[in-house]
């Protein structure tokens, strides 16, 4: 939202206060005006005596530079102390953005947005300017410090900017031939490919204001006429041009060089590729070259939470610093036989977070797919050993649900039934039995459990007064429906086993089957499935006994997508009232920053791998197992989530759903979503909507499709296009369009999205 | 190397110059002396007038504090300008360390090591103090800046320290009631769990030196007597105790909670777990509580390059900043349908680096195992489509070498022959035919190609005048041995195909088979294997024609371990003179920081997945595909490697091997290692050594084992223990002990390691 073709908008940061930001700005503006280009200077927030204000200085010496100050306060202290009115950060950013936009439309070529003090000097609301202005991410002119100590403060200021994802374009400072900071810093920044220009220092102050002004004018004229500044301005122009050229070409280059995940490239053109210049909070900044006259970057809401990974916002400076800390303290250190603080802390914190007394051991891998490979290896071994099966002779199978998805490595592909996803994978051999299951959805204002093709055996569809009631499993396990579920499950397993099938593990994605199409399984069905497996172990082996440990089959929960507050709770298992024997977490685990996965298991399963034989061990491990960067970021993510939970960060949403719910169950048991119950109810009544649900951060809308839905359906495309036109980036799964918020998405953003959905579906 | 039980050694950094570091140090030292504990103050490098020197100030006002200055220069400028003698950074660190050690042994309780200027003020050799002192990684007392602009400079200084992996323990600053920086900063640091103490400012200077001294003395006495300082010192003591207690308990906790990769836990105790407090360059800092009287941290050389990942040193500040930049600019943004600069730049740079005209498309995954899964999916599909095979009916197989290893996900496990690694994996089904092959090794001073069990068909062992000669494939392809290799390969494939085996891909780890036991394959054999597959495609299908694209079988090179300078060249393929159709890179790709993998393929193979059907696409993708942090770090890693290569960074090693080699082949073709040819020759003559080789960063020593070697051999354990006692952390694979350097390992470290090896094997 801050990039134009004909206007170069830059932000001026100082390495410290009093390093001459305004003087340098004046030099730049004056010089470019000399080249018959037009300059403008914006001081968003100014403090101190008006007669000394920076925009006034620019007006006086800027040779016609347009100037503006958005907020002026008299006291010469940091804005967070001086401000005596309510300045909303978003409003401030919008005003800067619209000022620049106005300037662009009036033909300004260069505009400088000057900050106050140093990079971290607080803005009007007390947060660091480097954070405050980050959504704009203007290229930066850094004014370095030429005084004693200035090498250090300049480099630190630079680092603070870099770790927020800013691009520092040029560095300027006054030449001081005694301290020679400019020499040191020139070499330093040259290594970073950033050019530095030392400038002559301004003249000393004179008693007489007139003389002072005259001196300054002469100074400016001298510097502005110099080759150094002319060449710098030329270079800045070149960089701007190069940036736009690169952005222009990126989609083409990507189309040429990149083999995209999960993408059919035939028919795909460069136009189908989004060029993401940066991202912040919930938004991508997407480049669009369509209209050369307008802004070249537009914010787009990341409505898939970047494939379900985002939780604490893009470009989160705390996570950025966490990652940097771990990188600086360790890099990566090999984990076999060693331990380091981030890995240990993460193990401790995860066990505490998941609060499942069965889980005692933490195994690290890199992503959900590898973590599930490990879970499967654990589960199959435990069952094979207990039941005395020879896996080389017998094919040990998985028990699961249809539409499950556990990743793309071939081992875990085999855990799902044949589908479009694995149809053409040469080595795919589905190894399991997968249940059909009843689905939860709201239809026409009513929460329903739909039996689908299972109506004959499971009875007619169920209706509920609220989503809360659907999850009231303590009551529902005693219902007739539960009885029918259990009988059906028991019978089905028995049939398979009688045919000779040997099952090695039960694998479930609790509550929500994501990649399979955002299928919201009746939690009672999953609960009954676990209950049957555990209470009737003899189903799986004639000698099997019920046990307090794993019983019947090891129960593996794939919470890669559903865990860690994605559905509004720390675990999805808690919705079922079930403690799995093995749990896999990823995605949100690192707050949406880097790949990392954990597979947690019970001591009993761990012990199966313990023997005097090396070959009995779990011989699995990736080189970057428990990499410090991922672990540290995950520790800080879990800590942040815990703080948010304790602090009642989501209280308003919870209350909204509590009021809409009919069941009183005490605080912890509330079923809620960031999406409002009204929205869900209203949309469920829309003609083109087949069904809808919301849970935690997830909103899922099934559109009517005459052809029947499924992964290849195009029914949701129309809605997706409408959202896209309104700068909301969404993903569809067949006839299902889903939107996913972060844990930190602002209520205002959610309201805007809800309005958009209402309009788009009206 | 800087942690003792009874001595708390801290480093004092200033947010800027002139913030009162020495005054605060004096307060702390004086206060602790008041508590009948002993303080010491170390100024490693002092500049400026001796009468104003900081250690002098401490002596005058520190109430008996022991003081020392290591280097004193008169000019009051930054040390890098003042220094007029040669101060080696390592020497400086060693002197600090030994001073602290002396103080520890004389019963000092608190010692402060004071820096000069701000955190990045240059040390005597011009590099930032924050970098210079990083190997010590002392806990930090940060003196914040109470002046206007001080909020910013204090936070930036803090961030610069954090991104180098320092722990800031306390923050102190002078109270200024006008600017109130202490309030803002107290809240800021409270959120980081760091306590901040504001102190009353020192008295103004007086004309009379005696009065001045009296004032200061009164000032110090007042502050030192205050509760604030007493409680801070108590808190510092607590933190020191907690740190030691945590370190004491970490191995136990890890033993309790962590399920280690590739580890048989039976018989393992907490004592077997290395507690890694931090890492820098080539060294871990390992905690050892064995002897409470001595230093608690000892450096240990990371001799496995942390499972083959390290290339640019642990805790590399440039990579740390790269990671932070990408995290700050993007976090992670979903890659399907989008592109961002780091991912595109990496694709461009990789294609350029690998310089293989066949490769045109880049697919991203998270680690070598997932990247190989993708490669296998690509290869099998291409072959099945070309040869019209129905993979659901036919079992398509891999052609490879015995001892290959491609990762731990079950799909790629199936690409290796049955072995200890996969023996107990329930779903493992080896799908392939794997050749035995001749091995390269130096025995008793002579480079040999040993035919092993293949002597009957491949002829007798070969001898070479140099390692260079082994790799002279242009000559060797015309040899009789090559003819025998090709005949053997052709015959073996023909036999398999005649038995009905369908092959879908040839997979090789070029030159060196790592996980299989550091097996150095005769490059001529691998070259012949590729040549036979490509030149005689009719072997694999009766209608197959030779082609300029992939011919016979898609050739997949697994360069996860061997690529990107691990063996001294950008690609291992270049040793064979072969351009694979698919190449997989990981490990060194990110300079040893975070997981990331690339699978590069030809356009022809990419096109096989192109169709109007979504289901024909390569439906593979992990959530963090092409995560910005990994891609950015990889871009900067490749850039650094290219700069090193161009700059002749390894020239001395290359020359050493060139002199030892007998074949003149022009610069680019030199076969060389960081390990010296003399070492290899000398150790090859040692009785207990069966064979040895070195290539690039890898040194591999096979020890004689009466029982025959293999993964379960214990022959190398003795040598491993000797190295361990000398603080070298190494890994063994059966009877093979290998050491792996980084690309940046210093010659002095290598010499020390070589000496140690000579002594240990003598």
UniProtKB/TrEMBL annotation, chains A, B:
<protein>
    <submittedName>
        <fullName>PLP-dependent transferase</fullName>
    </submittedName>
</protein>
<keyword id="KW-0808">Transferase</keyword>
<dbReference type="GO" id="GO:0000287">
    <property type="term" value="F:magnesium ion binding"/>
</dbReference>
<dbReference type="InterPro" id="IPR015421">
    <property type="entry name" value="PyrdxlP-dep_Trfase_major"/>
</dbReference>
<dbReference type="InterPro" id="IPR015422">
    <property type="entry name" value="PyrdxlP-dep_Trfase_small"/>
</dbReference>
<dbReference type="Pfam" id="PF13500">
    <property type="entry name" value="AAA_26"/>
</dbReference>
<dbReference type="InterPro" id="IPR004472">
    <property type="entry name" value="DTB_synth_BioD"/>
</dbReference>
<dbReference type="InterPro" id="IPR049704">
    <property type="entry name" value="Aminotrans_3_PPA_site"/>
</dbReference>
<dbReference type="GO" id="GO:0005524">
    <property type="term" value="F:ATP binding"/>
</dbReference>
<dbReference type="GO" id="GO:0004015">
    <property type="term" value="F:adenosylmethionine-8-amino-7-oxononanoate transaminase activity"/>
</dbReference>
<dbReference type="GO" id="GO:0005739">
    <property type="term" value="C:mitochondrion"/>
</dbReference>
<dbReference type="Pfam" id="PF00202">
    <property type="entry name" value="Aminotran_3"/>
</dbReference>
<dbReference type="GO" id="GO:0004141">
    <property type="term" value="F:dethiobiotin synthase activity"/>
</dbReference>
<keyword id="KW-0032">Aminotransferase</keyword>
<dbReference type="GO" id="GO:0030170">
    <property type="term" value="F:pyridoxal phosphate binding"/>
</dbReference>
<keyword id="KW-0663">Pyridoxal phosphate</keyword>
<dbReference type="GO" id="GO:0009102">
    <property type="term" value="P:biotin biosynthetic process"/>
</dbReference>
<dbReference type="InterPro" id="IPR005814">
    <property type="entry name" value="Aminotrans_3"/>
</dbReference>
<dbReference type="InterPro" id="IPR027417">
    <property type="entry name" value="P-loop_NTPase"/>
</dbReference>
<dbReference type="InterPro" id="IPR015424">
    <property type="entry name" value="PyrdxlP-dep_Trfase"/>
</dbReference>
């Amino acid at each position: 939202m801050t990039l134009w073709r004909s206007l170069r908008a830059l932000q001026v940061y100082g390495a410290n206060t009093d390093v001459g930001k305004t003087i340098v700005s004046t030099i730049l503006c004056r010089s470019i005006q000399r080249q018959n280009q037009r300059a403008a200077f914006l001081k968003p927030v100014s403090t101190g005596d008006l007669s000394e204000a920076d925009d006034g200085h620019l007006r006086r010496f800027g040779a016609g530079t347009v100037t503006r100050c958005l907020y002026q306060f008299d006291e010469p202290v940091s804005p967070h102390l001086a401000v005596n009115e309510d300045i909303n950060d978003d409003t401030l950013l919008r005003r800067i953005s619209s000022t620049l936009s106005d300037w662009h439309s009036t033909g300004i070529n260069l505009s400088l947005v000057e900050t106050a003090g140093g990079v971290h000097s607080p803005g009007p609301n007390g947060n660091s300017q480097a954070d405050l202005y980050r959504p704009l991410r203007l290229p930066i002119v850094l004014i370095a410090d030429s005084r004693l100590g200035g090498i250090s403060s300049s480099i630190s200021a630079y680092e603070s900017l870099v770790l927020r994802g800013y691009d520092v374009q040029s560095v300027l400072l006054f030449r001081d031939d005694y301290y020679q900071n400019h020499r040191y810093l020139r070499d330093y920044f040259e290594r970073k490919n950033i050019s530095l220009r030392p400038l002559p220092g301004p003249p000393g102050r004179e008693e007489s204001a007139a003389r002072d002004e005259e001196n300054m004018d002469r100074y400016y004229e001298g510097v502005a006429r110099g080759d150094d500044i002319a060449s710098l301005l030329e270079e800045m122009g070149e960089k701007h041009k190069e940036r736009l050229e690169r952005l222009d070409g990126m989609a083409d280059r990507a189309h040429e060089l990149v083999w995209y995940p999960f993408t059919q490239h035939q028919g795909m053109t460069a136009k189908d590729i989004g060029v993401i210049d940066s991202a912040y909070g919930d938004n991508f900044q997407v480049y669009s070259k369509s209209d050369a006259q307008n802004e070249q970057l537009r914010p787009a809401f990341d409505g898939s939470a970047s494939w379900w990974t985002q939780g604490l916002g893009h470009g989160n400076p705390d996570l950025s610093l966490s990652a940097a800390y771990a990188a600086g303290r360790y890099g990566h250190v090999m984990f076999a036989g060693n331990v380091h603080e981030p890995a240990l802390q993460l193990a401790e914190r995860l066990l505490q977070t998941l609060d499942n007394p069965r889980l005692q051991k933490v195994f690290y891998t890199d992503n959900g797919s590898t973590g599930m490979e490990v879970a499967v290896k654990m589960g199959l071994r435990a069952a094979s050993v207990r039941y005395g099966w020879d896996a080389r002779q017998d094919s040990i199978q998985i028990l699961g649900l249809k539409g499950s998805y556990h990743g793309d490595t071939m081992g875990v592909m085999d855990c799902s039934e044949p589908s479009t996803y694995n149809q053409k994978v040469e080595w795919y051999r589905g190894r399991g039995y997968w249940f059909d299951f009843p689905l939860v959805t709201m239809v026409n204002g009513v929460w329903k459990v739909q039996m689908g093709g299972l109506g004959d055996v499971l009875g007619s569809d169920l209706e509920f007064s609220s989503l809360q009631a659907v999850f009231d499993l303590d009551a529902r396990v005693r219902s007739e429906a539960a009885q029918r579920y259990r009988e059906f499950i028991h019978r089905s397993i028995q049939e398979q086993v009688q045919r000779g099938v040997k099952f090695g593990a039960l694998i479930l994605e609790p509550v929500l089957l994501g990649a399979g199409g955002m299928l919201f399984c009746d939690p009672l069905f999953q609960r009954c499935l676990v209950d049957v497996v555990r209470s009737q172990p003899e189903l799986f082996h004639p000698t099997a006994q019920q046990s307090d440990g794993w019983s019947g089959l090891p129960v593996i929960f794939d919470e890669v997508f559903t865990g860690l507050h994605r559905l509004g709770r720390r675990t999805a298992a808690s919705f079922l009232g079930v403690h799995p024997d093995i749990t896999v977490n990823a995605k949100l685990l690192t707050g949406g920053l880097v790949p990392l996965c954990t597979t947690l298991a019970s001591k009993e399963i761990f012990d199966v791998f313990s023997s005097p034989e090396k070959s009995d061990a779990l011989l699995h491990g990736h080189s970057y197992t428990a990499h410090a960067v991922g672990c540290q970021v995950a520790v800080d993510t879990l800590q942040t989530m815990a703080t948010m939970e304790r602090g009642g960060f989501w209280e308003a949403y919870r209350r909204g759903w509590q009021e809409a719910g009919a069941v009183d169950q005490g605080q912890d048991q509330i079923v809620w979503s960031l999406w409002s119950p009204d929205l869900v109810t209203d949309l469920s009544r829309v003609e083109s909507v087949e069904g809808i649900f919301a849970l935690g951060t997830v909103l899922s809308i099934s559109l009517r499709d005459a052809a029947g839905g499924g992964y290849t359906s195009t029914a949701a495309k129309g809605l997706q296009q409408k959202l896209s036109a309104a700068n909301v980036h969404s993903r569809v799964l067949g006839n299902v369009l889903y939107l996913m918020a972060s844990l930190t998405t602002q209520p205002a953003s959610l309201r805007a999205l809800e309005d958009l959905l209402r309009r788009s579906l009206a």
